[in-house]
Amino acid sequence: MIKRAFIGLTKPKLKCDLVEPGPKEPEAIPIPPRMIFLLNEPLDSTRESLIKQGDMVKKGERIFLYKESQEYVTSPVSGKITSIAPFTGDFGKIATYLVLERETKQDIESNFAEFAATPDIETADRYLRGTPGDPPLKQLADPANHFKKIVITGVDCDVMCTTRQYVLTRFRDEMPKALTLLKQMTGIDDISIAMPETMAKLSAFNGMNLIKVSSDYISSLPPMIMEKHLGIPFVPGKESRDLEVCFISVEAALSLVRAYEAKEPLYEKIITIIDKKGGRTRVSATIGTPIHRIFTQIGVETAEQDRIIIGGPLRGVAAYTLYHPVMPDMDTVIVQDSSEIPIVSDYPCINCGKCVRICPANVPVNVLIRYLESNLYQDAADSYDLFSCIECGLCSYVCTARIPIFQYIRLGKYELMKMESEIETEADNV
Question: In Å, how far from its chain's centre is CA 416?
Fold first, then answer.
């Protein structure tokens, strides 16, 4: 695998949006009568399920699919399971779709309360996964990972997105609690807070280990933070955890603090909604709320063939239904009018070189895309730096031929990882 210098030929000109001065409190979205959850485990007809249609669950109860399951979702309300179905997500990711009808009487399960007095990572992983911000508790609790640094991210990873900045600004006085809790839970003392360089001037952050991130787009992406601020070179095909660095969003860190203070998990997620005209509305919605409920509450209208983007315009993914639920890591939702959706094409690359010049990882994108279009994924990885891509999306943004390069790259990585997983499975079965 080729390993090129981690530096682009042309600096990207895009700037990240900064949170507005004096931001308003998020608009509270009422808990709907019907909640939807995505459980990160596929249905298997050969196994006996722990849950079935008609089962009752309590508020705070963890829902497991099978007896030996490691994945769970925590119900934010008491109610009845009315539907269990397979769900296929981005790039064929399989999950289980649960629908819960909320009951008038709310029974509470409080198993976490007895452990709240003595925070530790194993208990947090057992009870607090999927809280707002989606803290990486599973990674932190895995003994196979040997983290030496934690970075709390108060910067957003796409243009137009400002949710993390809002949370950091609004709750900056609680950050010392977050630092203390994470050190106590993990035993890791090297904890930094990544924030816009303009925000780092606030006196509330005095004495903290700050990473001052510029407003240039991509500066807030984990590989760039590690390279520029932590002195850890990017390694193609490796994740931050492989390099002993754990990234946790500021909302996730604060959700843990409040869970231990309240002795129960939190369920209210802060989201920035961007309408067709570019107007922003920040809301607080219970995890599991269908997004159409939010749109109705704040007066955002949608029409057939409009696009709903979860995340930012460069790195986000499309939602194919207005019933898509609020997820723990959902920071931004963009509604794009059908007439404004950028056109993509199957035209061949014209070798204009824009993608090569703007790539921060110096990947030969114009050659790489030819191999990806031909499904030659292994060649793309071995000879043309597929895994050097940090998935910033700038190549698609500047492409003259309007080739969806970013999507081709993500598909290529997915297909290669799928192939490797199948080979490992076959080897285990021999």
Answer: 22
